[in-house]
Design brief:
single chain; two-stranded antiparallel ribbon
Length: 134
Protein backbone atom coordinates (compact mmCIF):
# COMPACT_ATOMS: atom_id res chain seq x y z
CA UNK A 1 0.00 0.00 0.00
CA UNK A 2 1.28 3.49 -0.83
CA UNK A 3 2.07 6.02 1.87
CA UNK A 4 -0.45 8.82 1.72
CA UNK A 5 -0.56 10.68 5.06
CA UNK A 6 -2.91 13.63 5.44
CA UNK A 7 -2.69 16.03 8.37
CA UNK A 8 -5.66 17.98 9.69
CA UNK A 9 -5.71 21.74 9.29
CA UNK A 10 -5.75 22.23 13.08
CA UNK A 11 -2.66 20.01 13.46
CA UNK A 12 -0.83 21.83 10.65
CA UNK A 13 -1.54 25.18 12.33
CA UNK A 14 -0.28 23.84 15.67
CA UNK A 15 2.89 22.48 14.05
CA UNK A 16 3.62 25.78 12.29
CA UNK A 17 3.09 27.76 15.50
CA UNK A 18 5.37 25.40 17.45
CA UNK A 19 8.10 25.51 14.81
CA UNK A 20 8.23 29.25 14.18
CA UNK A 21 7.09 30.90 17.42
CA UNK A 22 10.60 30.13 18.76
CA UNK A 23 11.67 33.11 16.63
CA UNK A 24 9.58 35.50 18.73
CA UNK A 25 11.71 37.86 20.74
CA UNK A 26 13.66 38.77 17.65
CA UNK A 27 15.50 36.50 15.30
CA UNK A 28 17.23 36.93 11.97
CA UNK A 29 16.89 36.00 8.32
CA UNK A 30 20.40 35.42 6.98
CA UNK A 31 21.46 35.01 3.35
CA UNK A 32 24.58 33.05 2.38
CA UNK A 33 26.60 32.07 -0.66
CA UNK A 34 27.90 28.57 -1.36
CA UNK A 35 26.27 25.21 -0.79
CA UNK A 36 23.24 24.92 1.46
CA UNK A 37 23.95 22.51 4.34
CA UNK A 38 22.18 19.15 4.43
CA UNK A 39 19.80 20.43 7.10
CA UNK A 40 19.47 23.17 9.73
CA UNK A 41 21.44 21.04 12.22
CA UNK A 42 24.52 20.75 9.99
CA UNK A 43 27.35 23.15 10.88
CA UNK A 44 28.25 25.86 8.41
CA UNK A 45 31.44 25.51 6.44
CA UNK A 46 33.07 28.14 4.25
CA UNK A 47 29.80 29.87 3.34
CA UNK A 48 29.91 33.66 3.58
CA UNK A 49 27.09 35.52 5.34
CA UNK A 50 25.97 38.12 2.81
CA UNK A 51 23.06 39.69 4.69
CA UNK A 52 21.34 39.62 8.07
CA UNK A 53 17.81 40.99 8.25
CA UNK A 54 16.25 41.38 11.71
CA UNK A 55 12.85 39.79 12.31
CA UNK A 56 10.17 41.56 14.35
CA UNK A 57 10.06 40.78 18.07
CA UNK A 58 6.71 39.13 17.26
CA UNK A 59 8.13 37.38 14.21
CA UNK A 60 5.07 35.60 12.79
CA UNK A 61 1.31 35.88 12.93
CA UNK A 62 -0.67 32.95 14.32
CA UNK A 63 -0.96 30.12 11.82
CA UNK A 64 -4.17 30.04 9.83
CA UNK A 65 -5.31 27.79 6.99
CA UNK A 66 -2.05 25.84 7.12
CA UNK A 67 0.12 28.94 6.64
CA UNK A 68 2.09 31.26 8.89
CA UNK A 69 2.90 34.79 7.69
CA UNK A 70 5.94 36.72 8.90
CA UNK A 71 5.46 40.16 10.37
CA UNK A 72 7.78 42.94 9.14
CA UNK A 73 11.33 41.92 8.29
CA UNK A 74 13.69 44.88 8.57
CA UNK A 75 15.82 45.74 5.55
CA UNK A 76 19.56 45.85 6.18
CA UNK A 77 22.82 46.68 4.45
CA UNK A 78 24.43 43.81 2.57
CA UNK A 79 27.49 42.71 4.55
CA UNK A 80 29.57 41.16 1.77
CA UNK A 81 29.45 40.91 -2.01
CA UNK A 82 28.54 37.52 -3.44
CA UNK A 83 25.82 35.34 -4.92
CA UNK A 84 23.00 34.43 -2.53
CA UNK A 85 22.13 30.75 -2.89
CA UNK A 86 20.51 29.87 0.42
CA UNK A 87 19.37 31.37 3.69
CA UNK A 88 18.33 30.52 7.20
CA UNK A 89 16.03 31.72 9.95
CA UNK A 90 17.97 32.05 13.21
CA UNK A 91 16.73 32.51 16.79
CA UNK A 92 17.61 35.68 18.71
CA UNK A 93 20.62 33.88 20.23
CA UNK A 94 22.24 34.31 16.81
CA UNK A 95 23.22 30.64 16.78
CA UNK A 96 20.24 28.31 16.62
CA UNK A 97 19.01 27.79 13.05
CA UNK A 98 15.29 27.05 12.79
CA UNK A 99 14.97 26.56 9.04
CA UNK A 100 17.22 26.71 6.00
CA UNK A 101 15.84 27.60 2.56
CA UNK A 102 16.92 28.08 -1.04
CA UNK A 103 17.34 31.50 -2.67
CA UNK A 104 17.04 32.19 -6.39
CA UNK A 105 15.42 34.41 -9.00
CA UNK A 106 12.70 31.79 -9.62
CA UNK A 107 11.65 28.38 -8.36
CA UNK A 108 13.30 28.90 -4.95
CA UNK A 109 11.92 29.21 -1.43
CA UNK A 110 12.91 32.89 -1.39
CA UNK A 111 12.71 34.71 -4.71
CA UNK A 112 14.91 37.77 -5.19
CA UNK A 113 15.03 40.13 -8.19
CA UNK A 114 18.79 39.47 -8.34
CA UNK A 115 20.97 37.05 -6.38
CA UNK A 116 24.29 38.79 -7.08
CA UNK A 117 24.61 41.14 -4.12
CA UNK A 118 26.93 44.09 -3.59
CA UNK A 119 28.23 45.03 -0.14
CA UNK A 120 26.61 48.19 1.17
CA UNK A 121 23.47 47.89 -0.97
CA UNK A 122 20.16 47.15 0.77
CA UNK A 123 18.83 43.64 1.34
CA UNK A 124 15.05 43.45 1.68
CA UNK A 125 12.43 40.75 2.10
CA UNK A 126 8.95 42.15 1.53
CA UNK A 127 7.05 39.04 2.59
CA UNK A 128 7.61 35.52 3.93
CA UNK A 129 4.93 32.84 4.32
CA UNK A 130 5.43 29.31 5.63
CA UNK A 131 2.90 26.77 4.37
CA UNK A 132 2.48 23.16 5.45
CA UNK A 133 0.90 20.81 2.95
CA UNK A 134 -1.98 18.61 4.06
Amino acid sequence: MAHNPKTSLASRNLALDAAFDVLDGGGFMRWYDGTQPTDANTALGAQVKLAELPLSSDSFQAASNGSKVANAITSAAILASGTATWGTLVKSDGVTRVQDFSIGTSGADLTLNAVVLAAGATAACNSWTETMAA
